[in-house]
Amino acid sequence: MPEIPNLIAFALIALGMVLTPGPNMIYLVSRSISQGRLAGLISLGGVALGFVFYVLSAALGITALLVAVPYAYDALRLAGALYLLWLAWQAIRPGGRSPFQVKDLPKDSPRRLFLMGFLTNLLNPKIAVIYLSLLPQFVTPENGNVLGQLLTLGATQIVISVSVNAIIAVTAGSIAVFLTGRPLWAVVQRWLMGTVLAGLAVRMATDAQR
User: Fold this and answer.
1) Per-residue pLDDT tens for 74-114?
2) Rg of the chain over all Cα atoms, to the nearest angstrom
3) Given this model, what pLDDT does residue 209 score?
4) Poorest-confidence range of 28-32, 73-77, 142-146, 198-202?
5) Confidence (pTM)
6) Nearest-angstrom CA–CA distance, 88 and 109
7) Average per-residue pLDDT in the chain?
8) Distance, CA of 147 to CA of 163 (rounded, Å)
9) 10 versus 188: which is more confidently predicted?
10) Using CA atoms, how far apart are residues 6 and 173, in angstroms rounded to an integer?
11) How far is CA 53 from CA 5, 65, 71, 131, in A?
């Protein structure tokens, strides 16, 4: 079990990242608006399966890496900080696109919806980097059972991401209508998330080696 402060900090980062527009959110919103809420939720099931795949793969790989390479933790910590800064820039860069500015998608069967959700997540580099570079920041090797800590953190991220995306999928239509008439809200959301992610990146980069 990770230390409680680490678990809370990771949960906040996971929340911030799931609220930052990416391929998963764009696909789920587009699918929900084009084909209905149920289609969005079925697609989300595929996305969740992609998370499970990444968690298991990353947890096993990171555990072996931290044991075999003494400076692996520092390398992953800095990589995670740089990635958070990149996400912050993506949130605030000029011309950034709201995930609720969507295009129509063709209607697909439940099986194809699930598969497309899975592939969208599996081919999303953001997810791979989250697990490979961010998970180790919140593990305390001295407490033992590194694999257990990693799996707990991964499960936390999955629960938060699936919960938030489920709410977004169900309310996508209403949110899109709201933001269409209030573009300032979309700008505020982008700058807020960009600021939070940049702050977390700076903290991670300057954190003393444990």
Assistant:
1) 666 676 677 667 767 766 776 655 555 555 667 889 999 99
2) 18
3) 44
4) 73-77
5) 0.69
6) 36
7) 76
8) 24
9) 10
10) 35
11) 26, 18, 26, 11
At residue 202, φ and ψ (nearest 5 deg) are -65, -45
Contact 37, 166 (CB under 8 A): no
**CB hemisphere CA count around 130 (13 angstroms):** 27
Give the whole-angstrom CA distance, residue 3 versus residue 5. 6
More confident residue, 128 or 19: 19
Q: How far is CA 131 from CA 27, 32, 53, 205, in A?
A: 21, 27, 11, 17
What sign does the dihedral 121-122-127-131 (CA atoms) show?
positive
Q: Specify whether the CB–CB gap between 44 and 166 falls below 8 A.
A: yes
Token couple for 146? 């590194």
